[in-house]
Design brief:
6% helix, six-stranded mixed sheet, Immunoglobulin-like, binds CU-O-CU linkage, mainly beta, metal ion binding, 3 domains, copper, 38% strand, globular, binds copper (II) ion
């Protein structure tokens, strides 16, 4: 095994965007953070030193962490935070995974600026025999707040609502010229006519699912969440926070005099007000041989026309069709490992819940109430000792293994006033516990209209297969008959349709404690999360490894 070392210093750095200058939390002073690039099978050791007077942790989003849950990163789930001045080495091996993933802080809302690409080069050549790839280009979407991110987080958690919109979306940290003072902060990628490029697209935004398109060009999707797909060509893509998408782009257009094509990302929302409706743009710049034209990387003069192939903000039809086109490869070298039979089906609602405002407080949710969020009416509270540690040491005081499993067809969102529904939220730390090797199906049922976005549910420690999804209520009799157990998409984050459901299947073959949560940061803060324990199996190779000696104490 090859060992790859990286040094991450979590530190402040003064950054200016959209006419505002503020201290931003970074890794090694970079915003966005450095790219980690390794090979399949490598042992990765990231020495994280916390140089801020706050806690922090780092999560390797989508890396399976086989038996190494101690290196997964979510605060109070698999570790206690790394305190100011302290160091912790994340030590894990990348087993049987290849493609684009990413890393981000997993403490509070620090991932607003602490994130970067995590690239795993394959051992075998790409299965889709593309033309020679000229270059691989990370495209990371993020969000910028003019204000202090801790203040934004406090507003959301203390008052249970309020404006959640950021001040700009960004491409590789750059807002682009549609925002004030941002012409110089525009992402421009130079390409050569006739060549093919691999774009590694990551949605690191805190709270928004995004459409992305490049004017006049099509994109061929070849991979999602570091799993190859059957290639398909599309005019634009949809990507939810937490997800990654690799696409091939061929520079097959004849550029006009400025040689530039606009690329753009904007949110997909089912209702627009009062959420952010702004757009980030960047440019593809065709290299020219004409010496008369300047080759400086400046955007062209305004006005800027958005790509006509960029879907409208409420384009649910495009969103649904795009997601239905994603299929795993299911080839000899990359067989689809979807469980065809299951040992257990867990149905869980996911919802936003309005609660009366506590006395003497101001609430900003909706008619002076505040929001919580929940799964099966359990609003998740982080314990004070990490669940993994409690589990490993058999300390049962910090959590209980009685996550309620809702029987089918006992919920109904149709016609129910979403504001009055689910008022009986319970608060606590209940986890779902399954034996090693369980073939598990989880049906995620969205229950209200209040939310204008899909919920991107992310499962740590496992990839899963999306065997079915639909609008309305899941029907335990009828819907499983329509499941795709041949070539369903395999991912680590699924956008559960607004007012609908998604069924995912996985092999619970990674012993440890795993976080399952909405990747919209505000929903996680309100409790849209659960813990998931896979017990160790009988064989030595089926058990959780002991904790590293430098694991941060609680
Ligand atoms: Cu990308 Cu629990 O996170
Ligand atoms: Cu959500």
């Amino acid at each position: 095994t090859v060992i790859k070392h990286f040094h991450f210093n979590v530190e402040w750095k003064t950054v200016t965007r959209v006419c505002h200058t503020k201290p931003v939390l970074t890794v090694n002073g970079k915003y966005p953070g450095p790219t980690i690039a390794v090979h399949e099978g490598d042992n990765v050791q990231v020495i994280v030193t916390n140089k801020i007077a706050r806690n922090t942790t780092i999560h390797w989003h989508g890396v399976r962490q086989l038996r190494t849950g101690w290196a997964d990163g979510p605060a109070y789930i698999t570790q206690c935070p790394i305190g100011g001045g302290k160091t912790y080495t994340y030590n894990f091996t990348v087993v049987d995974q290849r493609g684009t993933l990413w890393w981000h802080a997993h403490f509070s809302w620090q991932r607003a600026s602490v994130y970067g690409a995590f690239i795993i080069y394959p051992r075998m050549p790409f299965p889709f025999s593309p033309p020679l790839i000229q270059a691989q280009i990370p495209i990371i979407f993020g969000e910028w707040w003019n204000g202090d991110i801790e203040a934004v987080e406090n507003e959301m958690t203390l008052y249970g609502g309020g404006p959640n919109s950021s001040d700009a979306y960004t491409i590789n940290g750059l807002p682009g010229p549609l925002y004030p003072c941002s012409i110089k902060d525009t992402f421009i990628q130079t390409i050569e006519r006739g060549k093919t490029y691999l774009l590694r697209i990551i949605n690191a935004a805190l709270n928004d699912e995004l459409f992305f398109a490049i004017a006049n060009h099509t994109l061929t999707v070849v991979e999602i969440d570091a799993v190859y797909t059957k290639p398909f060509t599309t005019s634009s893509i949809l990507i939810t926070p937490g997800q990654t998408t690799n696409v091939l782009l061929t520079a097959d257009q004849i550029p006009d005099s400025n040689g530039m094509f606009v690329m753009a990302a904007r949110p997909y929302l089912t209702s627009v007000f009062p959420f952010d409706n702004s757009t980030t743009i960047g440019f593809l710049k065709y290299k020219t041989t004409t010496t008369s034209r300047s080759q400086t990387n400046k955007p062209p003069m305004p006005p800027y026309t958005l790509p006509s192939n960029l879907p409208e903000m409420k384009d649910t039809l495009f969103a649904t069709q795009f997601l239905n086109n994603l299929r795993s490869l299911g080839s000899k070298d990359y067989p689809c490992r979807v469980p065809k039979k299951i040992d257990k089906r867990v149905i869980t609602t996911i919802s936003l819940n309005l609660q009366d405002c506590p006395l003497n407080q101001t609430c900003k949710g909706y008619s002076n109430k505040r929001f919580y969020a929940s799964m099966n009416n359990q609003s998740f509270i982080r314990p004070s000792v990490s669940i993994l540690e409690s589990h490993y040491r058999n300390l049962k005081s910090e959590f209980t293994s009685d996550f309620p499993e809702m029987p089918p067809n006992t919920f109904n969102y149709t016609g129910v006033n979403p504001v009055t529904e689910n008022m009986n939220t319970e608060f606590g730390t209940k986890v779902l516990e399954v034996p090693f090797g369980t073939r598990l199906e989880i049906v995620l049922q969205d229950t209200n209209f209040l939310n204008p976005e899909n919920h991107p549910i992310h499962v740590h420690g496992h990839n899963f297969f999306i065997v079915g999804s639909g609008f309305g209520n899941f029907d335990a009799e009828k819907d499983p008959k329509g499941y795709n157990v041949v070539d369903p998409p395999e991912r680590n984050t699924v956008a559960v349709p607004m007012g609908g459901w998604a069924a995912i299947r996985l092999y619970a073959d990674n012993p440890g404690v795993w976080f399952v949560h909405c990747h919209l940061e505000e929903h996680t803060s309100w409790g849209l999360a659960m813990g998931f324990i896979v017990k160790s199996g009988k064989e030595a190779s089926q058990s959780l490894l002991p904790p590293p000696s430098d694991l941060p104490p609680c």
